[in-house]
């Protein structure tokens, strides 16, 4: 998944906590989040009379606006790595929690489940067909006639 596709997917699924997110989708979102945060911080040179700055306002708005998409893509990434969604609360532990969360999100997908969860009410997939019986290699032997007399 490319950078642009990842950002589009995260914004399209901004409040979707079901399904899975690939590693590329998650890590491209992290790069985008950091870049936008850094760009909004550059506006801190514009000061207001009351002591605040344009950068702090923009960064605050960006952080609030990106909170839900960030949580959603993190939960989907944890699900893809086969971890429960509750691990997202590691971010509440300063520094060490972010490291733990980064390690968990860096893990490859653990299951062969489909990348998308089935739609509610969708028909379950048909079970695989049973294997065909093996073909006989030789015709069965006929029993010899019995002589009971």
Automatic annotation (TrEMBL):
Name the source organism: Agromyces rhizosphaerae
This protein is called DUF805 domain-containing protein
Where is the sequence biased in composition, kind Pro residues?
A: 121-143
Q: Where are its TM segments located? A: 26-45, 57-75, 87-106
- Keyword annotations of the record: Membrane, Transmembrane, Transmembrane helix
Please list where the region (Disordered) is annotated: 112-149
Q: Which Pfam families match?
A: DUF805
What superkingdom does the record give? Bacteria
Listed GO cellular component terms?
A: plasma membrane
């Amino acid at each position: 998944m490319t950078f642009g596709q990842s950002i589009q997917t995260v914004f399209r699924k901004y409040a979707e906590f079901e399904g899975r997110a690939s590693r590329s989708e998650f890590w491209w979102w992290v790069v985008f989040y950091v870049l936008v945060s850094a760009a909004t911080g550059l506006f801190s040179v514009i000061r207001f009379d009351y002591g605040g700055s344009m950068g702090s306002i923009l960064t605050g708005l960006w952080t609030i606006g990106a909170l839900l998409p960030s949580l959603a893509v993190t939960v989907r990434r944890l699900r893809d790595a086969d971890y429960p969604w509750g691990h997202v609360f590691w971010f509440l532990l300063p520094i060490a929690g972010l490291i733990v969360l980064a390690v968990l999100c860096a893990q490859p997908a653990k299951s062969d489940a489909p990348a998308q969860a089935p739609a509610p009410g969708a028909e379950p997939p048909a079970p695989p067909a049973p294997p065909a019986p093996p073909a006989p290699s030789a015709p069965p032997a006929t029993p010899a006639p019995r002589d009971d007399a």
